[in-house]
Design a protein that fits this description.
- The complex is a heterodimer.
- By secondary structure, chain A is mostly helical.
- Chain A has two domains: about 10-95 and about 105-125, no CATH class; about 135-195, Arc Repressor Mutant, subunit A, CATH 1.10.10.
- Helices cover about 75% and strands about 0% of the residues of chain A.
- Chain A contains eight helices and no strands.
- Chain A has helices at about 10-15, 20-40, 45-65, 75-95, 110-135, 140-150, 155-160, 165-194.
- In chain A, α1 crosses α2 (about 20-40), α1 (about 10-15) crosses α3 (about 45-65) and α5 (about 110-135) crosses α8 (about 165-195).
- By secondary structure, chain B is mainly alpha-helical.
- Chain B has helices at about 5-15, 20-30, 35-55, 55-80, 85-105, 110-115, 130-140, 145-160, 160-175, 180-190, 195-210, 215-220, 230-240.
- In chain B, α2 packs across α3, α8 (about 145-160) packs antiparallel against α9 (about 160-175) and α11 runs antiparallel to α12 (about 215-220).
- The longest helix of chain B has 26 residues, at about 55-80.
- Classes of the chains: A mainly alpha, B mainly alpha.
- At the A-B interface, α2, α3, α5, α6 and α8 of A face α1, α3 and α4 of B.
């Protein structure tokens, strides 16, 4: 964990994790306008801005829930950069032509960039996980879902009408399979990037 | 795929190994780097699954709430910019009439509680006892104002910062100590701190709570449009009309 001091704006992250409507509304009121302006100034419309902001807030929620987000810079900078980068990615995806970006110079904040990299890595990881999970067989998916939702493996066995031994083994193997696939994908990506 | 290994990993994570097996396992973790790294990945996957499915319900509730707030925010913005179509007025008017029929004369005056949303305190002051500060913060955020008040008073002896005074004032307002609360807000209002406009808003709320609507309105009219919650100010002013 970084040695940096946690910024008081961590309250926004905690509020998101707690699904606190007052905090969420405040985030929209205080921080959304800047992101909306950036997107609408750069060939986007309001609806697209709304989607980008919503995706970023869901990412922050997931990160906060996984307890991996400790804000060391102002929320303002962090949130804006995430929205901005997400929108630029969208633009890149939708057109191969060069895109001109209109923006005011934003203050570059070291710890913000570090956090952005973490958030994007987290996001990538989740996407990879989701893709690989869907590659699993139906039975595997079902066993895993139940294993991590229900309280005990006995309950899982009962629900699926199979023996305890079977679900235990199945669960271990399915987690194993998923681990291997993700490991392979990661190795492949690092080869590709090197 | 090394099936036995995964079964072993899972048993270890579930705490199902005997003492001997456990010791063996940990020994292998220390000695065999490949084994350790495979276990790390397995453990991480376990965590990710827990995080994904263990909180699925919560995540859905969050997404729903988020969509609601987001729609509200963006629609609000739209109606401010886009001019209303005539049929819109008709619909709005008929809804207003229906509401009017239901609620006519019941809610003549705005209600203090509708506007009373004290923000949470996050103190980072230095030079005062951190313990007292934390206690005051917890009591304030937990709406235990009676308990927060004496704590604020003792902090203020050491550190007379606008932030502490502001939250002290809010606490006083919540428990109905209007004179003291208003003194504090008036003081903050003449200062030049970040709490200047907020103090005015709370002064207005204090008047509202006491039913002094005319005074409330007068104060509201002095609040700068740059105040972060100016739409609340507008809403209350409208209600006071």
């Amino acid at each position: 964990m970084s040695q940096n001091k946690i910024h008081p704006d961590q309250k926004y992250i905690d509020g998101l994790a707690a699904n606190d409507s007052v905090v969420i509304e405040m985030i929209y009121k205080k921080f959304a306008p800047k992101a909306v302006l950036f997107i609408t100034n750069n060939s986007g419309d309001k609806d697209q801005a709304q989607d980008v902001i919503q995706e970023v807030l869901i990412l922050l929620f997931n990160q906060a829930k996984a307890k991996t987000l400790q804000l060391t810079c102002p929320f303002d900078a962090y949130f804006f950069l995430l929205c901005k980068r997400r929108w630029l990615n969208e633009l890149k995806k939708s057109s191969n032509k060069g895109v001109t970006i209109y923006e005011n110079v934003v203050s570059i904040n070291e710890s913000a960039h570090e956090l952005i990299a973490q958030a994007e890595e987290f996001d990538e990881k989740q996407k990879l996980f989701d893709t690989m999970f869907l590659k699993l067989g139906e039975k595997c998916q079902e066993v895993l879902k139940l294993s991590f939702t229900l309280k005990s493996m006995e309950e899982v066995a009962q629900k699926l009408n199979v023996t305890y031994g079977y679900v235990r083994k199945k669960k271990s193997l399915c987690v194993g399979q998923l681990t291997e696939w993700i490991q392979e994908a990661k190795n492949f990506n690092s080869l590709k990037n090197n | 795929m090394n099936e036995e290994r995964y079964i072993l990993f899972d048993q270890y994570l579930q705490g199902e190994l005997t003492v001997d097996e456990k010791n063996n396992f940990e020994k292998q973790l220390n000695e065999d780097a490949e084994f350790a790294s495979a276990f790390e990945s397995f453990k991480e996957m376990h965590f990710q699954l827990e995080n994904k499915f263990g909180q699925e319900a919560e995540r859905e509730i969050f997404a729903e709430n988020l969509t609601r707030i987001s729609d509200k925010y963006f629609n609000n913005k739209k109606t401010k910019v886009v001019s209303l179509k005539p049929w819109y007025f008709a619909v709005a008017a008929s809804i207003a009439i229906m509401f009017g029929l239901f609620f006519f004369d019941y809610n003549h005056y705005p209600n203090f509680e509708d506007y009373n949303h004290p923000e949470s305190a996050y103190f980072t002051e230095r030079g005062v006892s951190e313990e007292t500060l934390k206690k005051a913060e917890d009591n304030f955020n937990g709406k235990r104002y009676e308990k927060a008040i004496p704590l604020f008073e003792s902090i203020l002896k050491e550190n007379n910062s606008p932030e502490i005074r502001y939250f002290y004032g809010i606490s006083l307002l919540q428990v109905g100590k209007y004179v003291k609360a208003e003194d504090i807000f008036k003081e903050l209002e003449t200062g030049n701190s970040a709490y200047k406009e907020k103090a005015k808003w709370n002064l207005a709320l204090s008047k509202l709570k006491q039913g002094k609507y005319a005074e409330c309105k007068e104060i509201l009219q002095t609040i700068s449009q740059d105040y972060e919650d100016y739409d609340e100010v507008e809403r209350l002013l409208e209600e006071l009309e």
